[in-house]
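hiii so my PI (J.) wants the whole complex modelled not just the main chain, which honestly fair. so below is everything: two entries, each one labled with what it is. i double checked the lines twice but i was tired so who knows lol
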Amino acid sequence: MDDKKISRRTLLGGVIAAAVVPMKATFAKEIQKGLPLDEEIREDPTKVIGLGPSAVGKRATFEAPIRKFSETSSRTPLQDFYGTITPSDLHYERHHAGVPNIDPNQYELLIHGMVESAMKFTLADLKCFPSVTRLCFLECAGNFRTGKEELTPQDVLGLTSQSEWTGVMLSTLFREVGVSPKATWFLAEGSDAAVMTRSIPMEKAWDDAMIVYAQNGEAMRPEQGYPARLLLPGWEGNMNIKWLRRLEISDAPYMTREETSKYTYPVKDKIRMFSWEMDARSIITYPSYPQKVQRGWIEIRGIAWSGRGVITRVEISTDSGKTWADANLQSPVLSKAHTYFRYLWSWDGSPTEILSRAIDETGYIQPSLKQLTDARGAGGGYHMNPVTAWQIKADGTTWFKPEKA
Amino acid sequence: MLATMVKVSAQQPRNVEKTGTKTPAKYGFGRTATLKEISLLDIDVRPDGKGLPAGQGDALKGKALYLSKCAVCHGNNNTDFSTAKLPAPMLVSDTSAKSRPKAIGNYWPYATTIFDYLRRAMPYNAPGTLTNDEVYSITAYLLHANKIIKQSDILNAETLPKVVMPAKKLFIMDDRKGGPEVK
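here's the output for the full assembly
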């Protein structure tokens, strides 16, 4: 959303170098990508002593996965991953007034409102509480782009990523401050220049909400909310308030700008608000644009996820949606987490379309765009999770299929 | 990490307390916050008016403030909307649900949200610099420009929560719970 309104900020400069090109090889021809940046590397590695140990590791010089960014967001390169953990430096971003620079020694979280005692916690305090680690995805509620054939998985659905998060259960903190049994909502507020706020129903706090300070085993990145953020597994990204400075316990929602003017969407002649869970969806990440495939065996790969629990099935169609068959799910299959799927397919060289469709533990089946627009009208907007297709042409080139609502 | 989980399908991190040692009623980490500390941060405003500060404003004062502090990004609201290219969303429409742009008059369900949002986040390049009187006045101007209140109306902690927004009747809560139905 709002990515067009550009000239307002100059936080991010420069252009993305077009350093990624397909490399020729015999099997899985277009999967590995990257540019040799250093000619010397072509020497026979068994004849020269290699580089010594170093303070911080780097990617192979042949690998250069990058986020694609605008003034307000950056998108994860889903097509470059072989698993479900997003490397922290490639996690998607969406912020409304830039990434603040917060000194962890100055950091404090205030919890007040309908509590026995209003309290402040330093980062060190938060780390003293019993900690918990879990994997889950985050996804922007506006994650879906269509409109032309030249779109990569990153362009279509790059506003989702997955990390292993560590922190304290929110319920632990709420018991510490003595939240009133009459409380039904709480307000979460960030300390960025948007002073971002969202109202969250109390049930989520008693269920699985966390305040996290670590991402993939180390301190969380600034773009993800350093030094501490709210984590609401399965719920729309915007509610997972980053750079968290305050929680106010309440008995009514606040109706902030982000839950009224934004993150709401037309359903027929009404406007739907408070869509918290991210509905089940999936995307094939290989093969996808701009890759080229050859006749013969192809392992179709991708990810599926649901904000309402576990993915129970992913179905694949290799005949433009006429018939469907189950993909293999990589275990362990975790609740509210990206789930990797694979499906072995022998392509006979005739033009076709390949699609994936996710089914979650509630029995929800990822809908087609037509089902969504029949149910809601053509207004579009947030929480659009349609099945998407890749077109494979006779020459093996693969293109996104832009569908019209 | 995951190996110890009995049921990998339900990745619900249960409280550590349940698995082993006894849980204290309180851990004793953190410290009591003072009223002064709370009031410094507690800037939110609810639809029922809770959180609105003292002070007041009107649309005429608000217009002058808007033109000097906001119009550079949001437009002066006199020009032809369809051709305007602005770095920020347009804020003025009328009160018909079908009209465009989607703005305060036809899309915002609560008037208090304007006050809350302006005080915390605008102007974009200098957030948190408006006085409470200025926020009341600019809120009044935006409500008047969107054809919701009269130019002479005075906004304060009493009157602002009483403003009925035309878009309020359009809003519905999401009642989906998963399952096969597409809604």
